[in-house]
TrEMBL record:
NCBIfam families: GldK. It comes from Lutibacter oceani. Keywords: Lipoprotein. GO terms for molecular function: formylglycine-generating oxidase activity. Transmembrane segments: none annotated. This is Gliding motility-associated lipoprotein GldK. The keyword Ribosomal protein does not apply. The keyword Nucleotide-binding does not apply. The lineage of its organism: Bacteria, Pseudomonadati, Bacteroidota, Flavobacteriia, Flavobacteriales. Residues 42-442 form the Sulfatase-modifying factor enzyme-like domain.
Length: 453
């Protein structure tokens, strides 16, 4: 008994010698220091309180935005609207993922004496010696690493092999078979001997957890996991369909396709497509961190709420009519401060007939460009006439699942000045795409002390 007591005493001494806690409650310590990282192309909106809503005459008589004081937390927001070039990266990633998956699956099905060309596109062999015990168990038991969004069952695509898009450069008949059947338009839809990519096949599937529903209702977690499959290619026909008896064919043909418009805001994107882009952007960043073996997951990229959008648009100016203050839309030298329709018929007097580059006109005091004019922007908030009456004054956001009307803000190149005011509300249906609606993304700022970071 004395020996046991001695061992316990020695153990306690050894434990206390190796720790400086002195038996006090010190909390769990992180293995490394953490600092907020500003995403590329975004600016920090410091958060705070402001008077939201109409503070002057409500010209449209909508009576759905009475002035009230609300508070929003700090967050990041894109300096500009998402451009054609940035959205193309999303479209190309979806396109390449589909093609590489089909090439890899076709290559696996072929016999050993099959087409040697497709060998380059096979799934990468995962070295079991390089796998963690978790990965080994998952692959052995479930056949994947638990990625529900992966049609490859957890196998890795070969992203180094070049994809040949020119039909005259296809290296083999087997390669042509995969490309034609998986991504190109059917022969009956072709003309002038041209084979084009079938944009209807460019679909992005993702899963998300409805956290609010899960928090307010009881049940298994799996009941609140939602699946979305979204066609990601923008609707370029909006340039024709939005306007009758107007020649807009060049915009229809070239606006998203031609590199001349790379730095212009993407349009023809529905609210659902904008949400899918946010999910992909989050995945893109997390995939990079995982490749560097960094366990940290970035906060989700998302659409800003209506309150966040208005707070950011005001640029810290209380009771301002426009992002630059107001109440005028020109400088003292007569230069227009936004892209809109100031004079009936003379639509290019402000510098542009349609959209302009995303970094045009002076930014507001938060460094945000074109928060008024150019293109209106999707927000995450459902449109309701009662939003300002039923919404909280702390990070207000009214989300109604059955309400497919979503708030758009900022006005566009086709609108009059009233819709450029930071307090003007408008809406469009979530599955609709327009030639005058784009979006920009936001991201939560973790913590509250914005000065140290």
């Amino acid at each position: 008994m004395k020996k046991i007591s001695l061992y316990i005493s020695l153990a306690l001494v050894m434990f206390s010698c190796g720790s400086n806690e002195q038996g006090e409650l010190v909390g769990v310590k992180s293995s490394s220091n953490w600092h907020s990282e500003r995403p590329l192309g975004m600016t920090l909106i410091p958060g705070g309180s402001f008077t939201m809503g109409k503070q002057s005459e409500d010209v449209a008589g909508s009576l759905n935005s009475p002035a009230r004081t609300v508070t929003v937390r700090p967050f990041y927001m894109d300096e500009t609207e998402i451009t054609n070039s940035e959205y193309k990266e999303f479209v190309y990633w979806v396109r390449d993922s589909i093609v590489r998956t089909e090439l890899a699956l076709f290559s696996e099905l072929m016999s050993s004496d099959g087409d040697p060309v497709l060998e380059d596109y096979k799934f990468l062999n995962i070295d079991s010696t390089d796998m963690s015990p978790y990965q080994k168990y998952m692959m052995k038991t479930y056949g994947s690493l638990g990625d529900l969004n992966s049609p490859t069952q957890g196998k890795m695509l070969n992203w180094d092999a070049e994809i040949l898009w020119n039909v005259n450069e296809f290296p083999s008949e087997e390669y042509a078979e995969v490309m034609i059947d998986s991504i190109f338009t059917p022969i009956e839809d072709s003309f002038e001997g041209r084979r084009m990519i079938n944009v209807n096949k460019l679909k992005f599937k993702y899963y998300w957890l409805d956290q609010e529903a899960a928090a307010r209702n009881k049940g298994d977690r799996r009941n609140f996991i939602k699946q979305e499959t979204i066609n990601v290619y923008p609707d370029t026909t909006v340039w024709v369909r939005d306007f009758n008896y107007s020649y807009n064919d060049p915009m229809h043909q070239d606006y998203f396709y031609h590199q001349a418009f790379n730095d212009y805001p993407v349009v023809g994107v529905s609210w659902m497509q904008a949400k899918a882009f946010c999910k992909w952007r989050t995945k893109k960043k997390n995939d990079f961190l995982n490749s560097k073996r960094k366990p940290t997951q970035v906060p989700q990229f998302r659409l800003a709420t209506e309150a966040e959008w208005e707070y950011a648009a005001r640029g810290g100016l209380e009771n301002a009519t426009y992002p630059w203050g107001g109440p005028y839309t020109t400088t003292d030298r007569g230069c227009f401060l936004a892209n809109f329709k100031p004079i009936r018929g003379n639509y290019a007097v402000d510098g542009a007939l349609y959209t302009v580059e995303a970094k045009s006109y002076p930014p507001n005091d938060y460094g945000l460009y074109n928060m008024s004019g150019n293109v209106a922007e999707w927000t995450n908030t459902a449109y309701s006439e009662a939003s300002y009456y039923i919404g909280s004054t702390m990070n207000p956001n009214v989300e109604i699942d059955k309400n497919h009307r979503k708030v758009i803000r900022g006005g566009s190149w086709k609108d009059v000045a009233y819709f450029l005011e930071v307090s003007t509300r408008d809406y469009e249906y979530a599955d609709s795409a327009r030639s005058y609606i784009g979006f920009r993304t936001a991201q939560d700022f973790l913590g509250t002390d914005i000065n140290e970071n």
